[in-house]
Specification:
Largest sheet: 8 strands, mixed
Shape: globular
Radius of gyration: 18 Å
Strand order of the largest sheet: 6-5-9-3-2-11-14-13
CATH topology: Immunoglobulin-like
Number of domains: 1
Distance between the termini: 57 Å
Strand content: over 45%
Helix content: under 10%
Number of strands: 15
Structural class: mainly beta
Length: 196
């Protein structure tokens, strides 16, 4: 039987814990409708403990009067689905992140779909500072379908790739200690309009 210690950290909203480190993240935000976004986040953690150990992880969602609690959520560790517990009063979920003996890194993937106020969305970044150390690497994609236009992003993108069906905005950061969340705004393009 494994010992489950008290919750010691959050993904994206993280609390630093002794043997555990938050190493990197890759985030994809997809606009699927004017009022719906999907987020897929891959998070890499490492720990210094030699014994098998499971860390309870609290994963928060941005929920307020304009952003609903996600209507669909799934979690995986590697190729295996992970059961989680919803904490709607805390606007998040609790996930067990398991390290086997000799395993130095753990990868968790979280997917959620969220209804938002038409034209606005957010991904939480700022409380990563509670780890008291920057992320080694963070990569982000914001995908906007044809017929929609991204009008605001709180981080400057490094590159933009356009196809007939989707526009993808990319940015990466090293030694990343975010000072603001990833806020986005978009609008529908009139049928006679053009994308720039």
């Amino acid at each position: 039987m494994r010992f489950f210690p008290p919750t010691v950290f959050l993904i994206a909203v993280a609390v630093h814990a002794g043997p555990l480190s938050f190493d990197s993240e890759k985030i994809i935000v997809r606009l699927v409708a004017l009022d719906t976004i999907e987020v897929s986040g891959t998070y890499v953690f490492s720990h210094s403990a030699r014994k098998p150990r499971t860390y309870p992880v609290f994963y928060p969602f941005p929920v307020d009067s304009t952003m609903m609690y996600p209507c669909s959520v799934s979690v995986a560790q590697g190729d295996s689905a992970v059961e989680f517990t919803a904490h709607k009063r805390g606007n998040g979920i609790r996930i067990p992140a398991a390290f086997e003996r000799g395993q130095a890194a753990c990868t968790l993937t979280v997917f959620y779909r969220q209804h938002v106020e038409s034209g606005k969305g957010r991904y939480i970044l700022t409380t990563t500072s509670r780890w008291n150390k920057p992320l080694r690497h963070a990569a982000f994609e914001v995908q906007i379908p044809a017929g929609m236009l991204l009008t605001y992003m709180s981080y400057k993108c490094d590159s933009t790739v356009r196809t007939d069906s989707i526009t993808t905005h990319h940015f990466q950061r090293k030694n990343f200690q975010p000072e603001r969340d990833l806020d986005l705004s978009w609008r529908r393009i009139p049928s006679s309009g053009r994308r720039y």
